[in-house]
Automatic annotation (TrEMBL), chain A:
Its cofactor is [3Fe-4S] cluster; [4Fe-4S] cluster. It comes from Streptomyces finlayi. This is Nitrate reductase subunit beta. Keywords: 4Fe-4S, Electron transport, Iron, Iron-sulfur, Metal-binding, Repeat, Transport. It comes from the Bacteria.
TrEMBL record, chain B:
The keyword Membrane applies. Its main location: membrane. One of its GO terms (molecular function) is metal ion binding. Heme b 2 binds at residue 187. InterPro entries: Heme-iron_electron_transfer, NarG-like_domain, NarG-like_sf, Nitrate_red_gam. This is Nitrate reductase-like protein NarX. In the central section; belongs to the NarJ/NarW family. In the N-terminal section; belongs to the nitrate reductase alpha subunit family. Does not seem to have nitrate reductase activity. One of its GO terms (cellular component) is plasma membrane. The chain crosses the membrane at residues 6-24, 45-70, 85-109, 130-154, 174-198.
Length: 506, 240
């Protein structure tokens, strides 16, 4: 057993209201610069829809992620190492800017500086890359938001195409018959990252302390293999610096025990951050299991129980501190993934072992039940509806369990049971243990799960151990404040690194 | 005097600039060390032009190494006649040279015609492309002139090659170059200027060919390693 630590995220999709606050605050923090105009480390997609970049899930086209060879080994989908080196001069799988969108701004100056006259001044759209005026904006980072234009664009969603081809049922985009939910996406900080594995320069790496995947900006040579090899299309090419950039999981904040910007600013409070302990020796094998449906259970098996004394002993031997072990025991992410098993990985079939997991939304089912005039919070009604509404379940299974609808069914049943169980409590009725038992949980667990999913406060949603205190002391030794290169040197009496009070503790 | 400067001094100045610039850049500007790819803006033309140019250049360089470093006496000794040698050299050289020229032609056309790529052109590119294009065109021109007999049957293996080899012994036989045809002379001057430009332009990416990739494990782990943060100032401006 080789114990490693990872700061992971879970998102409860039922609570995402699609407000894009996470995307905007992330962009303000990280990518509001020249060269990254089109880059959204975090974005929110409406599903069904094509996503950003367009049709990113179409791995036939982009060759992202891993594939299992006939001999049972893992190989990047983009081919052998030598093949990738042969493609250095021109990467055949690289998305172009138009696959993301042509970034634009408006000539706002016209509005404020136009001379007084009879005509209203206009602010024309301008391409931010070339500076040329654009006649008609035809695509954006979020063009099909809330199913806008879904009649035209929806059928081009790769998952919609797949379900049509395999299940033979068409997903409808007519207003009354459609379903939708939001999917906020950021880098998955995978246990078996394809981007890192494809980087010819060795500039990309996974941090051994917290599992955050980063690009060393000094070592990146701009070969662009990471951009195409990431199946989630979450590594971007900065066209100004000529280097790759990606979601940093806000590591400067994580290091001092603060949540990422997207998590902290989430209006729906649907994000959870916490430590996962995993056995690094198991990862390669778990990612190479033959049946794609086994990938979710095999990843679950990589995770270690932080309450298990033998795991704790092995973790201590591996140099993991008590603070991290304590955080691992209190990890909301571990509870949602392993204890209650309501969170699922995004596209496990890419075999990257992603570490941002999702609680699938029950809302398409609840809404359909309620719309048909039935009680949308009755356990029996919901269970029946989950079994009857194949299309949303098939769709969720395609994105979260490599198409295994049984797992999605089980999770949705658990969510539906929690709804029904808690409704009785809220109405002052007796606790109905049979509801909990029907989905393999106790009433107590059900209430705990409810607290975590519905009303948890920040300190319970974000349990991030601080790595900063010891580091800060080491840092002031190597980087004294008198150093002219130090950005806080100008007012050493006023500006300090933001430590101490911001750290969240139990 | 001019001969001494051009063929006895300039090559060393060029190589000194190349070495010093590369060392400086490696130490202070790792962040700027990239190919500055523009594939994000335009892929269709690049996918033809770039491999054509790069692979063509690879063989062109190989051809130069063979032609300049292997003395005629060696090929004579193994029984390769002058005629056979030139047949092979011009034959393979023409293919490689044509590929490189067609590739760079397409790339330059793309750089001028695609607005986003044009905007992404760096200041150093103007100078670099001038000398790169110049060197390739002059090289092709010299080869054509020489093989059509326009240079009066000049044998570069008796003039340019021995001079080039004498550079390595630090006793440049610059007088050998006096008799070379003008096209060859210009090609060499453009070539040495280009060498000097390598570390100061995007050409520097040629030194980071990722050979090690074939041998390393797929996933790279690194510790946060605070002790490894360099305390010295970087070579570019601080952000404001």
């Amino acid at each position: 057993m080789r114990v490693m630590t990872q700061v992971a995220m879970v998102m409860n999709l039922d609570k995402c209201i699609g407000c894009h606050t996470c995307s905007v605050t992330c962009k303000q923090a990280w990518t509001n610069r020249q060269g990254t105009e089109y880059v959204w480390f975090n974005n929110v997609e409406t599903l069904p829809g094509q996503g950003y970049p367009r049709r990113w899930e179409d791995q036939e086209r982009w060759k992202g992620g891993w594939e299992r060879t006939r001999s049972g080994k893992l190989r990047l989908r983009s081919g052998s190492r030598l093949k990738r080196l042969g493609n250095l001069f021109a990467n055949p799988d690289l998305p172009e800017i138009s696959d993301y969108y042509q970034p634009w701004t408006y000539e706002y100056k016209n509005l404020t500086e136009a001379p007084a006259g009879d005509d209203l001044p206009t602010a024309r759209p301008v391409d931010t890359i070339t500076g040329a005026p654009i006649d008609k904006i035809e695509w954006g980072p979020n063009w099909d938001d809330n199913l806008g234009g879904a009649v035209e664009h929806g059928p081009r969603d790769p998952i919609v195409e797949k379900i049509r081809d395999e299940v033979g049922e068409k997903i409808r985009f007519e207003f009354e018959q459609s379903f939708m939910f939001y999917l906020p996406r950021l880098c998955e900080h995978c246990l078996n990252p394809a981007c890192v594995s494809s980087c010819p320069s060795g500039a990309m790496y996974k941090r051994s302390e917290d599992g955050i995947v980063l690009v060393d900006q000094d070592q990146c040579r701009g070969w662009r293999m990471c951009v195409s090899s990431c199946p989630y299309k979450k590594v971007y090419f900065n066209h100004s610096t000529g280097k790759a950039e990606k979601c940093t999981f806000c590591f400067p904040r994580i290091e001092v025990g603060m949540p990422t910007v997207c998590s902290e600013t989430c209006v729906g409070r649907m994000r959870y951050l916490g430590v996962m302990l995993y056995d690094a020796d198991k990862v390669a094998q778990a990612a190479a299991v033959e049946d794609e449906h086994d990938l979710y259970p095999s990843q679950l098996e990589c995770f270690l129980d932080p309450h298990d004394p033998s795991v704790q002993a092995a973790a201590r031997a591996a140099g993991i501190t008590e603070e991290w072990l304590e955080a691992a025991r209190r990890s909301p992410v571990y509870d949602l993934i392993a204890t209650y098993q309501v969170a699922l990985p995004l596209h496990p079939e890419y075999r990257t072992m992603p570490m941002v997991w999702y609680v699938p939304p029950l809302s398409p089912v609840v809404e359909a039940v309620a719309a048909s005039g039935h009680d949308g919070e009755d356990a029996g009604n919901l269970f029946g509806a989950i079994d009857a509404m194949r299309i949303p379940v098939e769709y969720l299974a395609e994105i979260l369990t490599a198409g295994d609808t049984d797992v999605v069914d089980a999770v949705l049943h658990r969510m539906a049971a929690m709804r029904a169980y808690m409704r009785r409590i809220n109405l002052g009725e007796d606790r109905d243990e049979t509801i909990a038992r029907a989905v393999g949980l106790t009433g107590e667990e059900m209430e705990d799960m409810f607290r975590l999913l519905a009303i948890a406060k920040q300190e319970d949603r974000f349990v991030v151990p601080s790595a900063a205190r010891a580091d800060a002391e080491a840092l002031t030794e190597t980087h004294p404040f008198e150093d002219p290169g130090c950005p806080v040197a100008e007012h050493p009496d006023r500006v300090m690194l933001n430590l101490g009070p911001t750290r969240r503790s139990a | 005097m001019t001969d001494l400067l051009l063929w006895g001094v300039l090559p060393y100045v060029s190589i000194a600039l190349l070495v010093a610039g590369t060392v400086w850049r490696a130490r202070y500007d790792q962040f700027g060390w990239t190919s500055h790819s523009t594939q994000l803006h335009e892929s269709r033309l690049l996918r033809i032009g770039s491999p054509l140019f790069h692979l063509g250049m690879l063989f062109v360089v190989l051809g130069h190494v063979v032609g300049l470093l292997i003395p005629q006496s060696w090929t004579d000794a193994i029984g390769v006649s002058d005629h056979t040698y030139h047949l092979i050299a011009v034959g393979t050289g023409a293919v490689a040279g044509a590929a490189a020229a067609a590739g760079i032609g397409l790339l330059v056309y793309r750089r001028l015609k695609v607005p986003a790529v044009r905007r992404a052109t760096l200041r150093s590119d103007h100078l670099m492309y001038t000398f790169l294009l110049g060197a390739i065109v002059l090289g092709l021109l010299a080869t054509i002139l020489n093989s059509t007999g326009a240079t009066g049957g000049y044998n570069y293996r008796e003039g340019i090659s021995p001079w080039f080899r004498s550079l390595f012994t630090l006793s440049p036989d610059y007088a050998l170059m006096a008799g070379a045809p003008l096209a060859f002379k210009l090609h060499i001057l453009f070539g040495f200027t280009l060498f000097a430009l390598i570390p100061y332009s995007r050409l520097v990416h040629m030194f980071s060919a990722p050979v090690k990739y074939v041998f390393r494990p797929y996933v790279v782990y690194r510790s946060r390693g605070l002790d490894k943060i360099p305390a010295q100032r970087r070579g570019w401006e601080n952000t404001r």
